[in-house]
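Example 3.2
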Amino acid sequence: MKKEAVLHVPLSEYAYAVDERTINIRIRTAKSDIVKCSVFYGDRVDMVEPIRVREVIMDRIASDELFDYYEATIHDTLTRVCYYFLLNDGDNELYYYSRGFDEKMNAHRTEYFQFPYIRREDIGDTPAWAKDVIMYHIFPDSFASGKRNLSGVGARHDVSEDIVSESRLGGTLKGIEENIDYIADMGFNCIYINPLFTASSYHKYDTIDYMSVDPCLGMKYDLVSLVKKCHENGIKVILDGVFNHCGSNFFAFKDVLKNGSSSKYYDWFYYMPVPVKFSDPPEYEAFAYVKEMPKINTSNKEVIKYFCEVGKYWIREADIDGWRLDVANEINHDFWREFRKAVRSVKKDAFLIAEIWEDANVWLMGDQFDSTMNYTFSYLCKDLFALGKLSITQFDEQINRMLMRYSWNTSLCQMNFLDTHDVARFLSYCEGDVRRLKMAFVYMMTSVGIPSVFYADELEVKGRSEAEYRQAMPWDKLESGDHETHDFFKKVIRIRNTSKALRCGKYKTLLTDDNGVYMFERSIESEIYYVIINISDDEKECSFLTDDFEGFDEITQTKITSNSVVKPWNALIVKKN
């Protein structure tokens, strides 16, 4: 037995409460090393000595390139739990507890792994609606200024005597509202909108006023009207909050530039030398060394209060449903804890998504965020479907490792995407091969997590530079009738929307054929789906299915058996009979 590979961490993604009567327990072992794994649990304050324990057989739920992951669900009335494991590699049995390994379990209960108390306050409270989200990501300047139209003409508005707000392509909030029917018809039930508060630049990440809508995009009543229209169409609305830094025309920074260290806002900023100079590169701390984006000191109590008010204000005034928080990993944890409490005080099911590009476990313990932008997912999809840098086996191993990073409920709510406003369009990585985009899209729509589509991906937009991947929504292409990819997206979105298994079901790898076929299962209760993706140039027979298999492919609307085929660069989403 490879003992050095065995890992369990209490009170983490390896041991977490689902509700007040349910705990999920995981353990990691070396790949293909263990033939049986059990967890024994009991009451850590049992009146009997030695304490009474119960055995639960653990299931292998995932494998990556190095490890297997086992899981058991404990349903009980116990509020205080202690537990240990029994591992069998076919030759030997070893008990594993907090101090290590032993051939016999002679340790006292205090030396077992501990779940001290299942407190309801510590159980993750991600909004129930979040698991059903299919998101449409909108860069407002680039989307629409009217019904199926974008002017393409930038605007300039005076914010004050010496401050101007600019746009590039003329998109507005009213334009988004006039196309909500398009978004709803596609099947999206949530929109995430990049920053829309008053700012100088077209991208609006250099905020001037967090309490007003940028005049290039509209007015406060336009946002209120947009959210109302979205809610009438069953669409949630998430706004972008930029609290790590502000714009150089933000009132507090202007006062610091004028009054230096004597400014009452001097401590609103993370690091400010004396004297304060507006120079390039900046001597003060700023986002990515951009002098127009000075870094805010989010540990300052007045700053915390200010931004908590911002978070609550737009929920109260416009009834938004959540926030996507920019550069969340550069802000202190206590700030996010206070922010979460603030927004949840006015909307109990507000959804909070953090922009964190790397693994984010420390932010996802239930006290800060519900979700993060899952860049790992996008990297894996790019390397398999677009670039062919990964084999199917490698892709599956890394997907499984990704899914084991967090608790199951957290994984279900990760924001998955192929591209965003910050990276090249996925179709550009595919060198324009729409077949590759479609297969990646099928995978995103059938895998674990919240799928998010950046506006115009459904209309085959490409782009590697910032100006290109934030280009104008090509409404003319839609109106011309050239929308085969659009219709494909719409069909697959409908399939996800109508399947609980594809939204919330367990994920199980069934086949990794490095000659081109990837197959996995999503299941919940009696609903089972098989997803079969062929990323080769050859037709593939479904002989890997059992002879008595019968199912129905939701894409082609045809019956599937072991005699069926998957065409080159095509997929089947099969509901099992």
